[in-house]
């Protein structure tokens, strides 16, 4: 009987790539195996065209800083998200310095982050948000304007042929980024393989079962030839997008009871017209429609993929019962268990506006979607824009002591009681905060090793275990150093 491997990572996305990189740095003697059911890594949510590539730092995303019922705005969550993204920047910077990653421009580029709102109510809110953030060290350099001439210098496409008299406002942070998480994922896995990590593609894990000795048996089959087999592992991480729920359910850990996921797909309008692309270099976010999930906040984005610049607008929600783009039509039904049926029904009852929103989105044709774009870009022409299909997002549904069940927008790590198995559920901010999420997982799942790992973790991520925003001088220095290493310009 073969010895169990130390670690199996399920899923070839940015989460597994990040965790694998951390573990290979911290414990190079461990045997690590990665299983991906498709023919290559980064083909689902981590793929460049399956997400907007925003380096989520809460610089422009309003859903991280909602207005309270009393009209107040609390920057705490926005600061927390920014802190997490700074850990990603530090980690990537270290890996560039150590030759693990290629030139920064192959996966990250400068793109100012802006917020643009219309109407007196949203203008008043945005100004309050700006006032709350401008003194925070991690938001240094944020600008605010209600002047069309100023906003025109930031993003001309927003102002051309806009009607006079309508209230509008914008904020801008020059230090924003556009990230190609697909390219980053590929580079991380390429390095892992040079370090002896085994990456097996076209291998689908079908179930996970606890063995008597405490290890986990992963039953799999090759997607080419359908050859079955199994692997035993001491630790398992399930980073398989929406598929993670099904695999965690198969493990029968009690911690997954009560969880379900609601799949939401997306489309973007895309243009590569040089005359249009040249006029916009920013990621511009706005307010979500009533009933829309935070991941559907409309935004007009600069994208740089494989060295080519383009613009995306969206997302437009779509519906499929699949948990992944390459999933099964039975996914949404096969997740149902007695433990999660109640919470999922409660979510359905409590979120009629979400259903209304989805139906409205599904009824939009190409022309209607370009009409939505004209809210941002009044001069948009139908013929310049094509629809592309984005990735599937599986939003978390879970038990709630007060409401019975809630729909949660964000990411959540579900861990077995002994820390030998963990999986990631949810979506945004996801990839941008992968480093922070995996650092939390290391602390939870490897309590006996974490103290000994700390010196190397501080080399990889200088702010590990501390916060930047509470130390203005350190924050300023860190932002400048990572900007220089990542070749980012304000």
Describe this structure as you would to a colleague.
With 490 residues, this protein is of the alpha+beta class. It has one domain: 3-Layer(bba) Sandwich (FAD/NAD(P)-binding domain). Helix content is 33%, strand content 25%. The chain is built from 15 helices and 20 strands. The strands form three sheets. Strands 4, 5, 6, 12, 13, 14, 15, 16, 17 and 18 form a ten-stranded mixed β-sheet that branches. Strands 1, 2, 8, 9, 10, 11, 19 and 20 form an eight-stranded mixed β-sheet that branches. Helix 1 (14-26) crosses helix 13, helix 2 packs across helix 13 (434-445) and helix 2 packs across helix 15 (472-485). It comes from Microbacterium aoyamense. Its cofactor is FAD.
């Amino acid at each position: 009987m073969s010895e169990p491997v130390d670690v199996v990572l399920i899923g070839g996305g940015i989460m597994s790539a990040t965790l694998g990189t951390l573990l290979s740095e911290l414990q190079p003697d461990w045997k690590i195996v990665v299983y991906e059911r498709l023919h290559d890594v980064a083909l689902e949510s981590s793929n460049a065209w399956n997400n907007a590539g925003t380096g989520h730092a809460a610089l422009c995303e309003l859903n991280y800083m909602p207005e309270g019922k009393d009209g107040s705005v609390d920057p705490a969550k926005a600061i927390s998200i920014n802190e997490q993204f700074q850990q990603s920047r530090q980690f990537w910077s270290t890996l560039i310095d150590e030759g693990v990653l290629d030139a920064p421009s192959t996966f990250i580029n400068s793109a100012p982050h802006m917020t643009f709102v219309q109407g007196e109510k949203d203008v008043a809110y945005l100004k309050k948000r700006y006032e709350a953030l401008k003194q925070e060290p991690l938001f240094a350099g944020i600008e605010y304007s209600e002047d069309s001439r100023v906003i025109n210098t930031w993003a001309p496409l927003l102002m051309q042929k806009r009607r006079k008299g309508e209230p509008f406002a914008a904020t801008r942070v020059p230090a924003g980024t556009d990230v190609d998480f697909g390219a980053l994922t590929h580079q991380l896995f390429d390095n892992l393989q040079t370090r002896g990590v085994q990456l097996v593609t076209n291998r689908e894990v079908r179930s996970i079962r606890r063995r008597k000795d405490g290890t986990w048996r992963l039953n799999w089959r090759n997607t080419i030839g359908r050859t079955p087999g199994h692997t035993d592992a001491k630790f398992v991480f399930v980073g398989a997008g929406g598929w993670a729920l099904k695999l965690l359910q198969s493990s029968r850990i009690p911690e997954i009871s009560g969880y379900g996921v609601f799949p939401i797909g997306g489309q973007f309008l895309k243009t590569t017209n040089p005359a249009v692309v040249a006029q916009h270099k920013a990621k511009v976010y706005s307010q979500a429609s009533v009933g829309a999930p935070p991941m559907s906040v409309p935004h007009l984005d600069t994208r740089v993929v494989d060295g080519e610049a383009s613009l995306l607008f969206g997302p437009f929600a779509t519906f499929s019962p699949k948990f992944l783009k390459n999933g099964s039509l039975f996914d949404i039904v096969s997740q149902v268990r007695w433990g999660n049926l109640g919470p999922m029904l409660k979510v359905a009852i409590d979120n009629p506006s979400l259903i209304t929103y989805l139906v409205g989105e599904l009824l939009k044709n190409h022309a209607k979607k370009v009409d939505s774009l004209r809210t941002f870009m009044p001069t948009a022409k139908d013929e310049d824009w094509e629809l592309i299909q984005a990735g599937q997002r599986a939003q978390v549904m879970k038990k709630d002591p007060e409401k019975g069940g809630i729909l949660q927008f964000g990411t959540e790590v579900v861990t077995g009681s002994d820390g030998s198995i963990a999986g990631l559920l949810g979506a945004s901010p996801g990839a941008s905060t992968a480093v922070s999420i995996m650092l939390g997982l290391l602390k939870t799942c490897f309590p006996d090793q974490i103290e000994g790992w700390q010196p190397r973790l501080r080399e990889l991520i200088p702010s590990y275990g501390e916060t930047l925003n509470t130390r203005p001088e350190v924050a300023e220095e860190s932002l400048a150093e990572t900007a220089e290493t990542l070749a980012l310009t304000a």
